[in-house]
Amino acid sequence: PGAGAALRPCSSRVAQEGINKPVIDRIIRVDHAGEYGANRIYAGQMAVLGRSAVGPVIQQMWNQEKNHLKKFNELMVAYRVRPTVLLPFWNIAGFVLGAGSALLGKKGAMACTVAVEESISEHYNNQIRTLIEEDPEKYKELLQVIKQFRDEEQEHHDIGLEHDAEATPAYSVLKTAIQLGCKAAIFLSERI
């Protein structure tokens, strides 16, 4: 390699022997789509609230989501998983959801964060159970990644609650609507 080029100590591909390829494909595809959508939600929130007092809080959560997306980009290459064909839709839908919730103010943005992150934490827990049932040793690295990201998503959920998410007008209606959208996005992104 040229001067200053970093060497990677291991291959960018993982051994495919013995893995349940359909399960791993589904997990990585949907998680990549979810982290992509989360990035777009936070981009939308920052477009509206970035210069407000809550801007640094949103930015901090967005920075973690950027790391999550980077990791799933790497895992897609390593496991040779194709992305969902719905990424262009999630690009727009995520930004609109983020900006739209932020137009309701700080509380609206945080209500969106609580709804999305609660759905994602639950989704990650389901994946953890699936991988443990499959073979916890074989999927050790992927389990570590998902557990870490689940914990960080739960932190975002808690930050949303600390920043008055539940004080948003029609909070329960908004939360339910967003979570139904999340369930639909998960279902579609796993399969398409």
UniProtKB/TrEMBL annotation:
Keywords: Iron, Membrane, Metal-binding, Monooxygenase, Oxidoreductase, Ubiquinone biosynthesis. It comes from the Eukaryota. It holds the Pfam family COQ7. One of its GO terms (cellular component) is mitochondrial inner membrane. The keyword Oxidoreductase applies. One of its GO terms (molecular function) is 3-demethoxyubiquinol 3-hydroxylase activity. The keyword Membrane applies. One of its GO terms (biological process) is determination of adult lifespan. Gene3D superfamilies: 1.20.1260.10. InterPro entries: Ferritin-like, Ferritin-like_SF, Ubq_synth_Coq7. Pathway: Cofactor biosynthesis; ubiquinone biosynthesis. HAMAP family: COQ7. This is COQ7 protein. It comes from Loxia leucoptera (White-winged crossbill). The gene is Coq7.
